[in-house]
TrEMBL record:
<keyword id="KW-0808">Transferase</keyword>
<feature type="active site" description="Proton acceptor">
    <location>
        <position position="115"/>
    </location>
</feature>
<feature type="domain" description="3-deoxy-D-manno-octulosonic-acid transferase N-terminal">
    <location>
        <begin position="88"/>
        <end position="266"/>
    </location>
</feature>
<protein>
    <recommendedName>
        <fullName>lipid IVA 3-deoxy-D-manno-octulosonic acid transferase</fullName>
        <ecNumber>2.4.99.12</ecNumber>
    </recommendedName>
</protein>
<dbReference type="GO" id="GO:0043842">
    <property type="term" value="F:Kdo transferase activity"/>
</dbReference>
<dbReference type="GO" id="GO:0009245">
    <property type="term" value="P:lipid A biosynthetic process"/>
</dbReference>
<feature type="site" description="Transition state stabilizer">
    <location>
        <position position="185"/>
    </location>
</feature>
<dbReference type="GO" id="GO:0005886">
    <property type="term" value="C:plasma membrane"/>
</dbReference>
<dbReference type="InterPro" id="IPR039901">
    <property type="entry name" value="Kdotransferase"/>
</dbReference>
<dbReference type="Pfam" id="PF04413">
    <property type="entry name" value="Glycos_transf_N"/>
</dbReference>
<dbReference type="InterPro" id="IPR007507">
    <property type="entry name" value="Glycos_transf_N"/>
</dbReference>
<comment type="similarity">
    <text>Belongs to the glycosyltransferase group 1 family. Glycosyltransferase 30 subfamily.</text>
</comment>
<feature type="site" description="Transition state stabilizer">
    <location>
        <position position="265"/>
    </location>
</feature>
<dbReference type="InterPro" id="IPR038107">
    <property type="entry name" value="Glycos_transf_N_sf"/>
</dbReference>
Amino acid sequence: MGCEFWAVTNHFVLNIRWAICVRVQFRNLLPPRSRRSASHFAGRGMGVVARKGMPVYKIYRALSYVVSPLLQLHLRWRKIRGLEHPTRLPERLGRPSLTRPPGPLLWFHAVSLGEGMAAIRVIKECVKWRPDLNILLTTTTMSAFEVIINQLPTGVLHQFSPIDTPAAMDSFLDYWNPNAIMLLESELWPNLIMASSRKGILLALLNARVSMKSFKLWSSPVLFPLISLLLSKFSLIIPLSSMQAIHFQLLQAPPFIINFAGDLKYVVEYDASKEEFRSIDDLKVQLGHRKVWMASSIHRGEEEVMLGVHKVLKQVYPDLVTIIVPRYPQHGKDIAQKLQKEGQHVALRSQHQRIVPGRNIYVVDTLGELRHLYRLTPIAVIGGSFFPGLAGHNVSEAAAAGCAVLTGYHVGHFSHMLREMQRLNPLSVLQVTGKLELEEAILKFFSDGKVLEARQTASKQAFHALSSGIIANAWNVLYFHVLKQALLKDNR
C-alpha cells in the first residue's frame, strides 16, 4: 500500500510540476531550427507522434538490414584490433554461447564500464530480493567485460550485446525470451525496442539521461517522431535528475512512466578479492608517509597538465608521489614510455613495479581498480574535464573514499552531480580552470592539514547524503512498475 501511495503521489506531483515548467522551458531548450517541428507535435498526443515515427523507423529498419554485411565486416576488423572478444564474436550477431535456463529471465543491457557498474548495483538488489529469477547482463565494450565479469553475482549470465540489426536482434530475443528488459542511460536502439514491443516484452530505462547534443539531435524534424515513438514503448523511465526528466518529457515520453530514484552512479561498491585488498595494502606500505595525490580518468593531453603540476609540487615536496590513472590503459603505457625516455623514474602498475625511493610517478595502466586506489590518496583530481569537448567523469567514488575532490569545468552531464554535492556542502568538490589553479589548490591542501581535512570530510558527507536509499528506491520503482507485471506472465 505504501509503495502504491508513493507512486500515485509521485505521478501527481510530477504532472503538476511539468504542467507549469514545460511550456516555459520548451522553446528555450530546443535548438531554433527545431522549435517549430517540436512545437507542432507537442500536446497532440502520443498517437499522432507514433504514427509519424513509424515511417522513419521503417526506413531505419530497412537501412540496418542493408548495411548488416558491412557491420559484420566492421566487427571482424574490431576483432583484429583487439576491440572485440577473440572467441565470442558470434554473440554480437545474436548467436548465444550459453544455455538459457528455464524460468523467468530479466535482461539488463549496458554499453560501457560505468553503465555496467550501475547495472550491477541493481542486479545485486534483484538477486537479494528475488533469487529465483534468472538474470542476463549484456555489455558492448571489452573494457566493461574485463572488469564486470569479476563483479557479477553468482549465477548471473553475461553475453556481449547484439548489434541493432533485425536479424541479430530477433535471434537474440527469440532465444533468450526475456520477461523484461532494463536499458541503461540513453540506449535507445530502434530494432531492439520495437522488436521487444512486438513480442510483448516490458521495457525500462534506468539512470536515464540525454546529453544536450543528443537532445538537439533528437529534437530535429526527422528524429523527433522516431524518438517519441521509441519512448512510448517503455513502461518505466528513471531519470538521473529532474532536468533529465524534463528532457524526456519534451521528447514526448508519457509523464506517468517517469519516476525518480536517484543517480545510480552515487552507489559505490567496494567488493574485492583478498588478493586485490592485499595489493592495495601493499601499495600503502610502499607509499609510507610520502605526500600523495592522484589524477584519475585523464584523457590524452591532460597528462601534460598533471605532469606540469607534478613538476611544481616536487620542487616543494621532493618525496612527492603522483599517481596517474588514465581513462584507457594504453594511454598509461604511452605516458610511462614517454617519461622513461625523458629519464624520469616511473613505476608501471601492470609490470608490478614498486614505488621505491626516487620514483615519484606511479602510472596505473589497469582496469577496475580505481575505486580501491582512491584509498591511497587524500587528494583526487578527476580528469576528462580540463579541455573543451570533454564531458567529465564520476566523482562519487573519490568522494566515497574520503578524498578531497577536484575537477575541471568541462564536465558534461556530471554537472548535475557536482551541483548536488556542492549544494549540500560547498567544500565537497572544487572546480579549477587549469594548471595554475590546480597546483595552487593542491599546494594549499598539502600545507594546511585543516583545510585538507575539511575538504575530505565535506566530500564524504555529501556522498553519503546523496547515495542513501538510492538502490532501494530504484528496486521498489522497478518492481512495482515493471517486474511485478512482467513476472505475472507464465508463458516464458
